[in-house]
Design goal:
homodimer; alpha/beta; Dna Topoisomerase Vi A Subunit, Chain: A, domain 2; 2 domains; four-stranded parallel β-sheet; two-stranded antiparallel ribbon; zinc-finger (chains A, B); Rcmb_RecR (chains A, B); DNA recombination (chains A, B)
Chain lengths: 198, 198
């Protein structure tokens, strides 16, 4: 609709997830009026990601070097490993400040319909860590949805015969600050079956 | 929160208007998994806009060459000029397919509190067009808000003594598909005062 480079930029921005035509237009006109140095920083950041982001050789999280900060940190307990689907799940767990162990990023969840089988996830690497480190507990922190549950079930079956290993799963239940009335049946059911004595 | 280039990209994306931290993260991980050629097209589009976008010498709209397609088109009536604030307003009016004249893009609206006076808008260029072309009608299509109304009032005062010129303003009233009950008082008041015999 616009002529020349402005429309190209709107088109490219509109291809990004969650950016509709109106937002793309708004961002494009913002950049049109922006300081070239600001655009430069965005371009540099894109180039670096395009050049390739490193992933930690141990846990699979995004990293600045071959090993990520968490896996390098001697204060983090190497015997407890929290298994998550994506790097953003590591950030979510870190924000709680409750977890002092290490992570293992699978790189997704089992989804046979999309052709994602166990070989597409970093499960082999997890087993290699089991052999190398003295892991005492594996916390399965995959998403509480169909794919995440299937992945957890698969890992439980694979890990349950390891001697001296405890496998745990994040608790399901009502979200804090939520309202019982608005909880879905599945969540409420889980909250009931997981009830604790106080 | 993330290490290295991923966090830089999230930070830069988060500076764009309408992109919150969650969206920035989502876009960054999308780009991380994207085809390098896709990132390349976005980079190219940014570079072109950074290199500078041309504006039509006549109307001030974004253009591919010195003169935009509309000002070059001999089928467009040069005697009727629709005055708008921004290039996106040209796109909005063009979408109606109702208008066969030409445009004049002011580049904003009067806003003395933000230091935007008449000298910051392309008003001088509009007067130059008045002298050069045989303009018969000027349609004031600035936004129906305080700044847009002030700009329209200013232009009406400046243009009303031009011989043989009609100055018009877009009609205010209820939006189509709207609900009378939910119209604000100002809009409903305008719709009332602008009522037409049927």
């Amino acid at each position: 609709m616009y002529e020349g480079p402005v429309q190209d930029l709107i088109d490219e921005l509109g291809r990004l997830p969650g950016v509709g035509p109106k937002s793309a237009q708004r961002i494009a006109f913002h950049l049109l009026a922006a300081d070239p140095a600001d655009i430069g920083r965005l371009q540099d950041a894109l180039q670096k990601v395009r050049d390739g982001v490193q992933f930690c050789q141990i846990c699979g999280n995004v990293a600045e070097e071959q090993t990520c900060r968490i896996c390098k940190d001697p204060r983090r307990d190497a015997t407890v490993v929290c298994v998550v689907e994506e790097p953003k799940d590591v950030v979510a767990v870190e924000k709680t400040r409750e977890f002092k162990g290490r992570y293992h990023v699978l790189g997704g969840a089992l989804d046979p319909l999309s052709g994602i089988g166990p070989d597409k996830l970093r499960i082999r690497e997890l087993l290699a860590r089991m052999g190398a480190d003295d892991i005492k507990e594996i916390i399965l922190a995959t998403d509480p949805n169909t794919e995440g549950e299937a992945t957890a079930t698969y890992l439980i079956r694979m890990l349950r015969d390891f001697p001296g290993l405890t496998v745990t799963r994040l608790a399901s239940g009502l979200p804090m600050g939520g309202d019982l009335e608005f909880a879905d049946e599945l969540t409420l059911g889980r909250a009931l079956s997981g009830r604790r004595t106080v």
